[in-house]
Predict the 3D structure of the following.
Amino acid sequence: MSPRVLLFTGKGGVGKTTAAAATATLAAARGLKTLIVSTDTAHSLSDALGEVPGEIAPGLHLHQVDTQKTLERHWGELQDYARGVLVELGLDEITSEEITVLPGAEEVIALLELREHAREGRWDVIVVDCAPTAETLRLLALPEALDWHVTRLMPVGRKIMRLVSPFVRGVAGVSAPGEAVMNAGERFHRGLMEVRELLTGDHASVRLVLTPESVVLAEARRTLTSLSLYGYRVDAVIANRVFPDGGADEWRAQWVAAQSRLLSEAEQSFAPLPIHVVPYLPAEPVGRDALAGLGSAMYGESDPFAPHAVEPPLRMSADEVTLALPGADRGEVDLARKGDELIVTAGPYRRILALPAALARRRISGAELRDGVLRVRWHAADGPPGEAGSAPPFGPGSESASE
Ligand SMILES: Nc1ncnc2c1ncn2[C@@H]1O[C@H](COP(=O)(O)OP(=O)(O)OP(=O)(O)O)[C@@H](O)[C@H]1O
Ligand SMILES: [Mg+2]
């Protein structure tokens, strides 16, 4: 039985760690075997829970990623290779400590560990406290982006390396990666793809945490679009730090009014997703009791651990590709066709989709973005696949684009 995986993301400081910890506490209180992990190495989860890592309550386990140890286990061979090449180029040795400071390395390692936990079969629920929006997104997109490079470069790369490696050694004085190193790279890559499958699969969903402020809301909308672009399924929004009304002085009354405006805006933006409202508490919700209370307030009558009913954003049929891009504007969505690839851009984010053979050899007949869904249709008959950018462009005056 696969565990239910719940990911929490949102802008910095909005309450991701708090919402994740409250959800995990609630799960354990309901008798579910629960693991909570963080993808960042700050110890905020342990601070919020007021506990050190380990079994912190019956059925509730807090896991802290040991980046260095895991890195050495997963990246050992790659690291040796990197070190060897750098030395031969006359650069200083790269140490594993230096690799850990590479952007995203820690989160990647945390995700590799997450896959192992999911496989263990020990957990009913795994709660993941993710890094703030941008990093999480880049990170979540990484496996697929890598897949694109690896599937293209790896087999050829390996062949070339086998052929040229004696020459490269002689001429350039640099080692080509040996078979063992390539295998380590492939293993690492496969691990990342499995993480991606886990996180976009039927048992996983993302909860978007926000506070009712215009800047935060704007970013949450973009996050929803890009998560969907990459195939992740958002099943709820959590609106945190909502001021209670009633008995308010002038200062609070103004905040209450502003927040309720933003909350109704959020309802429109995120419909049909449920928005769980969490009150601004008079004190920091730290410790299991406070978090359990916050968890009950957050979800009310709904069951936060039930399977989600969110469809996968991407669907491919015999003559159509649809991709849900909730909240995307036509002006920021771009589509390009390059041989057997469809390249979809939404704002600063891009996804490269490998087309199935049946679509790859036919021409696109039209594309439109309507009600947050990008729909690309293909001609029925076989024809030349077309060149880069042959997909109909979006924009005013384009016959295939529509409101
Ligand atoms: N509903 C609330 N009422 C009062 N305080 C809150 C509430 N939610 C969170 N806090 C407090 O706000 C602070 C930030 O919350 P938290 O650490 O959960 O945010 P975060 O999104 O995880 O931040 P980061 O982006 O730094 O990881 C913490 O001190 C937390 O206790
Ligand atoms: Mg946090």
Remarks:
- Residues 73 and 333 are 40 Å apart (CA to CA).
- The chain is about 45% helix and 20% strand.
- The first strand starts at residue 4 and ends at 10.
